[in-house]
Design goal:
Elements lengths: L4 E7 L6 E2 L5 E10 L11 E9 H10 L5 E14 L5 E14 L3 H4 L44
Parallel strand pairs: 4-6
Antiparallel strand pairs: 1-3, 1-5, 2-3, 3-4, 5-6
Length: 153
């Protein structure tokens, strides 16, 4: 079985550190993750995804991240069922974070990295290029390969 999630998005609110009755640190927060596909003439949509961090990861998030910070999360999907105040059965989907990382520069996210948690460096401007647009292509851009011939690679 495989249950692996990698997300990058912006926090929609400041995370708050809580503790279980046994003293274990925990925080839950929501990140807005942009969808990769945009319909022509429409604005980019975002999904709002709930994240749960435990122990030192929870303390790290609450110390260095705030509303609007860009964060990268690795973890797994977890589901749970509960009854709402009207007695209806509900199912919640959350990401339980294994690792959290800075995803923006110090100046853009307002975080002050220290210790082993260093923000990622931005790529040099000459390396940052726009992704090619394939919507302007045509069928002449492709060649038919005879199955009897050797492949060119």
């Amino acid at each position: 079985m495989l249950n692996v999630v990698a997300l990058m998005g912006r926090l929609v609110a400041d995370p708050e550190l809580r503790h279980t009755p046994q003293g274990v640190s925990v925080t839950t927060f929501t990140i807005a993750v942009d969808r990769s596909f945009v319909r022509q003439g429409e604005q980019r949509q975002a999904d709002f995804i709930d994240i749960v961090c435990w122990r030192s990861s929870a303390e790290f998030v609450c110390k260095y991240f705030q509303k609007g910070s860009l964060i990268a999360v690795n973890g797994s999907i977890q589901t749970r069922t509960y009854q709402d105040k009207n007695g209806n059965n509900r199912k919640a989907f959350e990401i339980v974070a294994d690792n959290v990382h800075f995803a923006g520069s110090k100046s853009s996210s307002g975080t002050a990295g220290s210790g082993s948690y260093a923000p990622r460096q931005e790529a040099p401007r000459e390396m940052a290029q726009e992704a090619p647009s394939y919507s302007a292509g045509s069928n002449e851009d492709f060649a038919v390969i005879d199955e009897g011939e050797d492949l060119p690679f």
